[in-house]
Design goal:
160 residues, mainly alpha
Length: 160
């Protein structure tokens, strides 16, 4: 087995580590790294297919831009804002999936959470300073990735 795909146990551990590191980030900096599940899921996609990570970044930016435009037309705040942004991200990711699934079938091989993540990141971009949100997402994701990679290379995480 190569490091390019994670076994289900390691993927679940990645989500758990991402949750732990996200919570620590939030408690120490008062910044949410794009939602609690986002760093763990992004770290997993870095193992699976880095193109998925790039797709999430593009979709998050488009979701953020679309949500800002939507805020100029509709009054959105609180739970309505959260629901609208996440729904916008899901619709955008689903559209990309429908357009690209024939040409790049492996790009969306394990994409369930990936439909929600762009909306979670965009929501935090709307609520927090953009640069600080970006730095927190990247740093917590890379920390999660590094811990997973270290565990796999040291044999602490089973590869089968």
């Amino acid at each position: 087995m190569s490091l390019s795909s994670l076994p289900p146990d390691a993927a679940a551990l990645g989500i758990g580590l991402g949750l732990l590191f996200s919570l620590v980030c939030y408690l120490t900096t008062n910044l949410s790294p794009g939602g609690m599940i986002t760093p763990g899921w992004l770290a997993i996609t870095l193992f699976e297919d880095p193109r998925q990570t790039a797709m999430v970044v593009v979709a998050s930016g488009a979701t953020y831009a679309g949500s800002r435009l939507l805020q100029g037309v509709v009054i959105l705040y609180g739970k309505r804002l959260f629901a609208a942004v996440v729904l916008f991200g899901v619709v955008l990711q689903a559209t990309l999936f429908l357009l690209l699934r024939e040409e790049f079938p492996m790009l969306y091989s394990n994409e369930t959470l990936g439909f929600v993540v762009p909306g979670l990141i965009a929501y935090q971009l709307l609520r927090q300073p953009r640069l600080a949100t970006g730095v927190s997402v990247v740093s917590v994701t890379l920390l999660t990735y590094a811990v997973l990679l270290s565990g796999l290379l040291l044999g602490l995480i089973p590869k089968v």
